Amino acid sequence: MDEFPLYLIPLLPLCGAAINLLFGRHLPRAAVAAIGCTAVAMAAVLAWKAFALLEHAGPSGVLTASFFEGDWIYATEASGPSLHIGAGLLFDRLSGVMVLVITTVGFLIHLYSTAYMEDDPGLARYFGYLNLFTGAMLILVLGDSLPVTFVGWEGVGLCSYLLIGFWFDKEQNAYAGRKAFIVNRIGDFGFLLGMFLLFSATSTLKYSELGAADSMGALQHAFLGKWSFAAIASLLLFVGATGKSAQLPLYVWLPDAMAGPTPVSALIHAATMVTAGVYMIARLHFIFAIDPFVLAVIASVGAATALFAATVGVTQKPIKKILAYSTVSQLGFMFIGVGVGATGAGVFHLVTHAFFKAGLFLGAGSIMHALAGEEDVTKMGGLARRMPITRWTFLVYCLAIAGIFPFSGFFSKDAILAGAFAFDADVPGFPHWLGFAIYAVGLCAAFLTAFYMFRAYWLVFGGKFRGDPHTFDHAHESPPAMTVPLVALAVGSALLGLLGIPEAMIAHANLFEEWLAPVLASGHAESPHLSAGLEWGLMLCASGVALGGIFLARSLYANGISPTADRIAEGLPRLYKIVFNKYHVDEIYDLLVIRPLRAVARFFWKVIDGLIIDLILVRGSALVVDLVGRGARFFQSGDVQRYVVGVIVGTGAIVGISANWTACNAAPFEVTVAGADVTVHARGMSPGQVARPKNQQLEYSFDFGDGTGEGKPQPSSVGKHHYDAKGKKTITVRVRDPRWDTRSKESRTVVIPGVPAEGRGGVR
Amino acid sequence: MGERIAFWVCAVMIIGGALMTISRKNTVTAVMSLVMTFFGLAAIYTLLSAHFLAAIQILVYAGAIMTLFVFVVMVLNRDEVAPWALRGIVGKAIGIGALAYTIALTVLLLGSTPGFLASTRSYKSGPPPEGWGGVADVGNILFTKYLFAFEAISLLLLVAVIGAVVVARIPRHVEVAAPADQKPAAGQGGHG
Amino acid sequence: MIPVENFLILAAVLFAIGVLGVVLRRNALIVLMSIELMLNAANLTLLAYGRARHDATFQALAFLVVAVAAAEAAVGLAIVVGIFRNRHSTNLDELTLMKH
Closest by alpha carbon to C47, among C17, C8, C9, C16? Predict the structure, then answer.
């Protein structure tokens, strides 16, 4: 098992990317496309092979591999946990499904791109980025620890940025790319913080070790305030998921991301990358399940996003925008699924959505290809006959996303809605009817989904052409390289649902849930089962709602835009306007986030950088140097005699200072006579005495000339003596400078008048 | 007493000569005054019992160096219109002030404190022993303890001689400046 | 015997005169002579201290100073001759090329 070269699955697309990005410009265009497609095709073959191996390995079997032996990130501390992260890969039932979707759908989209991007001058760059994305996405899902996943997570973010701004010569596209990148960074920040928190509690980041009992216990019982580590970490990781998977409030980048080529939208912004958040939550479902509050938050956010995006989708005119909001909405469904505990259903919807949404985007690309880049559905119409393959496949996708039996969307969406209906976990802070509310919101969103998708369908294919007739004349079916993927995806969209037939229809036919059960079962309880009757009721309800949406769309748009549709829009002018303008979310963000940020940036630019750094620090220091130089230039006159003057002044200074240090001089000293007592004040100073260090004080010794001899050297310059007899006395003071061992001596004769009878006479 | 008179005579000779040296417009006069100073110094050296150095002073200074000066003066003899360099006079005044301060300090230390020098450790009162300062005495030190310095000085003198010749000679390239083909081999033997 | 201090003061004065000559005269020849004066003042100081310490080493040093002075005079005069040949002047005020 271990020998299977799992690492080749992400490495092959990465190699393709390296070849195309480095040498693609010098290769023929056919070779570029061939390399791009072959790399992914080989990865897909390997993935299917690995999948087959996994099936033989039994329910708990996994494939593991590593890019290299030993540690990738390694840090130890004397005390505390040590960090060992390998570059390991994990191919289990969950990541296996993801890998299959990515490589298979990815290959179809690569194939489609060969025709769609045929004439683009940046073909090598395009395929390089697309392969790079595929490799990064595979690393994301195959990573056996959060850091490895994060590498892929950042890699797909980078590729998303590169591909959204693929036609970067238009400022708008480059802006959309930046927006996607920056919004994603907010989410990534949450992801990182969550990761750190998990590590601080459990000392590991490997999925297999995180799921172990002791790690789970540590997460449950470590608290930060009243919140458990598990709850905070899951919420932070969920922030990361909202960024990557375009949920409220970080969804804003996804509609703008449609600036990229349409196959990119299909691959990255519909099928794979945006589902990374769902995958990550499914991967860590055991941690998210610790605190039901977190699950309730996820489900609520998902439901809100599903409904919100669906309403916006109803009013949009560019076909890619409709699909973009549809994607946001469907991602909301997936989050409902993982939030209400129906993780398997969420992942199932992820897979089916990957097929039909990729197909929808590719179909839209085919339509735009035929209409010379026209995006606005109100300027299309009557294309059914011109593009039969596109039309029929598009219809299949629309039925699938609307949730019509027996197309795949029916089964996956029904599983999610059933899970929501059954969700009655008692969560503090949420009402007990939360599950039902989410179900109702989901149903509304499903209705809107059916409506806007068929609105788009009929506006494109029904009625008469509303645009420039000249364009219509040139409209034609796309080449086989584009229609083959469309058909393949349509087949998948139609039939995949049969992998997840609910219990109520046929017992034990839910192959998908059963397949994932070993991975997803651990951690939380079996999702509550509804009675068969109730489940049938829910299915009928959902189907009815979907059919209602379709018929409403048909009555309004089947033959062009009916007057009723316009009247409804005019009847609710304010509501229509707000929804049409996407609830002004972009404008609100602009006002609340971007403008203050720009003001701060402007402040830093103008004041901190411009004034303080550039003017005061940079120019100021240059000015100081200049001034000093000008001053110093005065001294370098070339006039030798002035230099001599400098030498003299320096010499004078040295002599002056050293004279203060070296010379000591006992003279003059003062003698105060009071009767038989004398006090001698020796100055013992050198000219211009400066303060001396403590160990270099002058030493004084006094000889009072009456046979008592010379006193001991002392630091004090004051000597006192009492004479026994009067008469002339010679007082000698000796001073020694310990620094240079220079000595000096001074003598003076004084008259001692003897002990005075009365009073005191002072004589100098 | 005789010694004292000799000292003062020599001192006057030295100071007078020095002042003449720096104050004369005529360079020849200045050189001659310098010679007078050197003779005075030689006499002073004998007062300091440095007989060998007194002889050297006469030989090297008054004999060799002064001859050199006289030669150069003969080559470039021209009286100056304005002998005093008064440019940057403020800086020079400061320099002279510093000089005066230094001298005053020296004089203050030495003159006003009669015991100062005597207070240093190795000071010895009384005249030096017989034969001190003679050729034997100095030679003994020069060729034992300071042999390396002596040899280094001889090398320095050699370098100075070569350097002086190189700096002062008439540069040859002044003549060779003409195009090469016009004067094929004439430049070779021109100035040996 | 004349006190050593007298010689030292004499040397100081001689040195000061030499400095004045170096600083105040324009003629490069006179400046060189003034440098000789200063060197002689230094020699005189050395000899005075040598006498005070009864140490002939000072005389050896003075001998070396004389040799250095001879070398200095030779090179200095050569430079003056060279400069004169190039610039037709020994005026120090005009020889200020060594500047910024």
Answer: C8
Are A470 and A597 in a shared domain? no
Final residue before a domain boundary, out of A580, A595, A624:
A580
Give the pLDDT band of residue A517 (cuts 50, 70, 90).
confident
Q: Which residue did the predictor score with more confidence, A452 or A470?
A: A452
Chain C nearest-CA distance from B184, in A, is 27
**Number of domains chain B is built from:** 3
Which of C23, C97, C100 lies closest to A641 in CB terms? Answer: C23
How far is the alpha carbon of A696 from chain B, nearest alpha carbon, in Å? 17
How confident is residue B101, by pLDDT bands cut at 50, 70 and 90?
confident
DSSP secondary structure string, chain B? Answer: -HHHHHHHHHHHHHHHHHHHHHH-SSHHHHHHHHHHHHHHHHHHHHHTT-HHHHHHIIIIIIIIIHHHHHHHHHHT----S--B--TTHHHHHHHHHHHHHHHHHHHHHHHS-TTTGGGSTT---SPPPTTTTSHHHHHHHHTTTTHHHHHHHHHHHHHHHHHHHHHHSPPGGGTTTS-TTTSSSTTTSS--
B8 pLDDT above the threshold of 90: yes
Q: Which of A5-14, A199-208, A595-604, B43-52 has the lowest mean pLDDT?
A: A199-208
B103 and B67: one domain? no
Query: Is the pLDDT score of C55 beyond 90?
Result: no
> Is residue A551 domain-shared with residue A437, that is, in the same domain?
yes
The residue of B102, B103, B122 whose CB has the most chain A CBs within 10 angstroms, and thus the best one to mutate to test that interface, is B102
The interface pTM score, or ipTM, of the predicted complex is 0.91
Whether the CB of B99 is below 8 Å from some CB of chain C: the reply is: yes
B46-99 tens-digit pLDDT: 988 888 999 999 999 888 888 888 888 888 766 667 777 777 778 788 888 888
Domain-located, residue A145? no
Q: What residues of A are in contact with residue B87 (Cβ under 8 Å)?
A: 639, 641
CB contact residues (below 8 A), chain A span 694-753, against chain B:
741-746
Pick from A630, A633, A644 the residue to mutate for testing the C interface (most C CBs within 10 Å): A644
The residues that bridge with A25 in the sheet, in sequence order, are none
Tokens of B189: 């033997």
